[in-house]
Amino acid sequence: MLNLARLAMFAAVVDTGSFTAAAEALGQTKAVVSFNIKQLESELGVSLLVRSTRRLSLTDAGERFYPRCQRLLQDAEYLLDDVRRDHHGLSGILRITSTPEYGAQVVVPALAAFAQLHPRLRIQHVSSSYHADLISERFDVAIRLGQLADSNHHAALIDNFAILPVAAPAYLAQWPIASLPQLAQAAWLAHSRLPSPLSWQVLTPERQAVLFKVEDDARLMADSATALLTFALQGAGVALLPEWLVRPVIANGQLCHLLPDHQFPVQSIYALYPNTRHVPEKVRGFIDFLRARIATAE
User: Fold this and answer.
1) What DSSP designation does 148 have?
2) Residue 125 has what pLDDT?
3) What is the phi/psi pair of residue 137, to 5°?
């Protein structure tokens, strides 16, 4: 039978890159960590790590074993959390990642409210535009926006939102936009992480789906909606942004919603969580809480 403590030491060595750093992170001596890794390799009958004076690397067997080790550790953590919950309510650590913009507006306030309901639960939120790997980076939930790519993870639909083409009044004073052809000829501000940021299926007022394609390359590109919003506010061109992000600046006149009788594809908000045999109550609880909170606010 595998020893979970040894699995945790192996994962720590891989995560930190050395026996010394792993020992410090775990509060153990280097000798204890090294002994347990050797015992783990003996139990498995394979070498997991290649040791040298300069570097530490995984063997082929180690490469295959590492993600499975992480899943086992995560399953064990989830099981312990749920056993404790039966007596004390939700506890343990809930690690969540989201984009900076949606995180600040929706996820973080929801986490603050969720923490009030579960005082024994420790919550860690990581704000990043980078799509982290849930298993290797030990996230319980990732909030993803837009079209969901194929994934080995479970995905729970949280909500849907519109995306709107917007521009500043100063830009429109020089280059008015009253039709799709004019919109296609505009100076566009594009999201660099989208596979096709300048091509969309658009629904016309007559309810016809047409392929909309910007004629020129984007004038400016950025990897965050906040940067695109700032570019648009400065009059740099047209950006296609989430309605929940631009609603306030449209209301106060800083940006104009272009061609409001045309509809760009509705986007979705998903909660992704690892595809494990046992979904912990803290994950299910937060997803249900977030979905209900958003539905109540609408």
Assistant:
1) P
2) 95
3) -100, 10
pTM attached to this predicted model? 0.69
Q: Which two tokens stand for residue 175?
A: 């280059």
HSE value, Cβ hemisphere, 13 Å, CA-based, for 77: 20
Question: Over 70: is that where the pLDDT of 133 sits?
Answer: no
Q: Report whether 142 contacts 264 (CB < 8 A).
A: no
- Helix (H) / strand (E) element for 15: namely helix 4-16
pLDDT in tens, 46-63: 889 887 666 788 898 888
> Mean of the per-residue pLDDT values for the chain?
88
| Tokens of residue 177, six digits | 């936009």
**Which region holds residue 2: left if phi is over 0, alpha if psi is between -120 and 50, else beta?**
beta
Q: Pick the closest to residue 58 from 75, 70, 72, 74 (CA basis).
A: 70
Contact by Cβ (8 Å): 211, 201: yes
Give the chain's radius of gyration (CA, Å). 24
Nearest to 64 by CA among 43, 42, 47, 40: 47
Residue 161 CA to residue 145 CA, distance in Å, equals 9
Coil/strand/helix, residue 179:
coil
**Helix (H) or strand (E) run with residue 19 in it:** helix 19-26
Q: Tell me the C-alpha distance between 59 and 173, whole Å.
A: 63
Rounded to an integer, the average pLDDT of 2-22 is: 86
> Quick one: pLDDT band at residue 82, thresholds 50, 70, 90?
low
Spell 197-220 as b/e; 16+ CB within 10 A means b: bbebebeeeeeeeeebebeeebeb
Assign residue 161 a region (left: φ > 0; alpha: ψ between -120 and 50; beta: otherwise).
beta
Residue with tokens 């913009």: 101
- Beta carbons of 168 and 255 less than 8 angstroms apart: yes
